[in-house]
Design goal:
This protein is of the alpha/beta class. The chain has helices at about 15-25, 50-55, 70-75, 80-90, 95, 105-120, 135-140, 150-155, 160-170, 215-230, 245-255, 270-280, 300-310, 340-350, 350-370, 370-390, and strands spanning about 1-5, 30-35, 60, 100-105, 125-130, 155-160, 180, 200-205, 235-240, 260-265, 280-285, 310-315, 330-335. The strands form 2 sheets. The chain has a 7-stranded parallel beta sheet, sandwiched between helices.
Length: about 400
Amino acid sequence: MRVGFVVGQFPQLSETFVIGQMAGLLRRGFEVDVVCNGITDYDFADRHQEPLAILLAHTRDWWGAAAHLRASIERLPAKLRDKVSTALDISSAASLNRCDVIVAHFGHNGARAARLKKWKRLKPPIVTIFHGYDVGVPLHERGLGRYNDLFRHGALSLTVNDHFRDVLVKAGAPAEKVAVHHMGIDLNKIPYEWKSWRDTPLQLITVCRLAEKKGVEFALRALGKLRAAAPGLSWHYTIIGDGPLRQRLEALASELDIAEQVSFLGGLPHQEVKQWLHRSHAFVLPSVTAENGDVEGIPVALMEAMAAGLTVVSSYHSGIPELIEDGKTGFLAAERDVDTLANRLRFIAEHPDECESIAVAARRKVEAEFNMERLDDDFAAILSRFAESRQVA
């Protein structure tokens, strides 16, 4: 069975879950093709090792040999740009039609494929996975109507949390064609290890792109309050990742007089990130809805931290409460609630023994509901059913 993935730029460090899902299908005997919106210079993994090597060997740009014209086409007047883009998209239809089913990651890529379906240029059924930005921003702009063709011509929309499913159904997606399918993590690569911080400084860590929706600003503000309220507590906060807000966040740490206790390390290779997680006790990600409506799905980084035995601190945001139950598998605060965040962090700093049982429960939660192997089995079964129904038709 051949699955055609329709994605944005490929491969991307921020979308390793896409590569993981593709690799899961390869391990189950599927053939995988990739149609993307630009092939990137990906330097965080060896492009000559599996699964990247085989995936890149079967990856093509939507626009083929005309891909180098993308920047020029983007500068054309809107109507002309749409006509040229459409003609070039059609050039990929032949390769996609060799597939038994199409998987589009993110709603805008599903809509792009659905447009070809509408014009009867695309034959395989389309399964679209919605992750966050593709739901939150259109909802904020009252623009979910951009998915009407996808709702009509797509075979199935999968959302990474229950909240997104409700949003799409209210926007007009047929309820029977929308289901929840979580992203997961490879638990075989993440051993559980509890590390107490009794009689040692509490090591806090965040791993994310430094963008508004990650809420790092509020983690810093909460730590500023914690230092003022409990100056005797010993802690250090390590932030791994880069992004548009880095300079502003570094300035904020200085303004809050906590710069000596905060380290900004920038982007690091995955292996180094794992080493930093191994040295840490608690993972902080107080996500918020961005000004443009951008939201999280359920962050994979939180799953990985919970699996590894870290105590997690996050927010009542999007699908995060489906992963974390406050006081049971981690700690939550309302979005932008700096006082509650500071209280949660102080509790963690002062109660390492109570946090151990929470960490154990967190690992069990991830094992039960976010195990990538089980989720990949479910996903393979879903795709197989669509392929079988197409063959019968």
